[in-house]
Design goal:
Layout (H helix, E strand, L loop, with lengths): L1 E2 L2 H13 L5 E5 L4 E3 L7 E7 L2 E6 L5 E7 L4 E2 L1 H6 L6 E4 L3 E7 H10 L1 H27 L2 H11 L3 H4 L2 H8 L3 H9 L7
Helix pairs in contact: 1-4, 3-4, 7-8
Organism: Sinomicrobium pectinilyticum
GO molecular function: DNA-binding transcription factor activity
InterPro entries: cNMP-bd_dom (IPR000595), cNMP-bd_dom_sf (IPR018490), Env_Response_Regulators (IPR050397), RmlC-like_jellyroll (IPR014710)
C-alpha cells in the first residue's frame, strides 16, 4: 500500500553528494500540495522521508487515491518525460522531505548516468506492475478481503492513514468502509 524504493533512495542520496547542483531538498508539513492536478510539472521528486498520496479528483468531486508514496518513491517523472500536465494531485499525508530534481537536470541524469536511468526504468515498471495487481485485486475481491489484505501489509493502517483516504484508495465510500470496520468480527478485518 505504501510503496517504497530503498535502492533509488540510496542512489539519489549518494548522487546528491556528488552533484548537489542537480538535486534540491524541500520539506513539507502534513496536507501540503506538492503538485496540483492539471498543472505543469517542472521537476521530478523522490521521497526522502514521510508519506505522500497521489490522487485524482473526478468531475463529480470525488477523489480516487492512485498510490501512497514512502521513502524512495518518485513522482512527477511521467509528466516530465511526456511533457504533459499532471494527471493527479500529489499531497503530503505526514510531514515529508523530498529530493527535487528540476526537469533539465533530470533529463541530463537520464542521458549521462546509466545506473540512474536503469533505476528510473525499474521504478516505472514496478509502478505499472503494482497498479495492475492492485486494481485487479480490488475488482475481484470483497471490501472485507481488501481491507484484511491492507492490514496484513500495513498493520497500523487505521492509526496512520485517515479512513477517508483508505476509502478513496479502495474506491469505496467512507460509509462502506466504516460498515466493514465496525461490524461484528471486524477484528479480523
Amino acid at each position: 500500500m505504501i510503496r517504497i524504493n530503498k535502492e533509488l533512495l540510496r542512489y539519489i542520496t549518494e548522487t546528491e553528494k556528488t552533484r548537489p547542483d542537480h538535486i534540491l531538498r524541500e520539506c513539507y508539513g502534513p496536507k501540503e500540495e506538492i503538485i496540483a492536478q492539471g498543472k505543469n510539472v517542472f521537476s521530478v521528486y523522490i521521497v526522502k522521508k514521510g508519506m505522500i498520496k497521489c490522487y485524482l479528483t473526478e468531475e463529480n468531486g470525488k477523489d480516487f487515491i492512485q498510490e501512497f508514496f514512502g521513502e524512495g518513491e518518485l513522482f512527477g517523472e511521467i509528466e516530465v518525460l511526456n511533457g504533459t500536465l499532471s494527471f493527479c494531485a500529489v499531497e503530503t499525508v505526514t510531514e515529508a522531505e523530498v529530493y527535487k530534481i528540476p526537469k533539465e537536470r533530470f533529463m541530463e541524469l537520464q542521458r549521462e548516468d546509466v545506473a540512474f536511468n536503469l533505476l528510473i526504468m525499474k521504478a516505472l515498471a514496478r509502478k505499472v506492475h503494482y497498479k495492475a495487481l492492485r486494481h485487479s485485486h480490488n475488482q475481484l475481491y470483497a471490501i472485507e478481503d481488501n481491507i484484511l489484505r491492507l492490514k496484513k501489509q500495513f498493520p497500523r493502517l487505521l492509526e496512520t492513514i485517515p479512513k477517508r483516504d483508505i476509502a478513496n484508495y479502495l474506491g469505496i465510500t467512507l460509509r462502506s468502509l466504516n460498515r466493514v470496520i465496525t461490524k461484528p468480527g471486524a477484528e479480523d478485518h
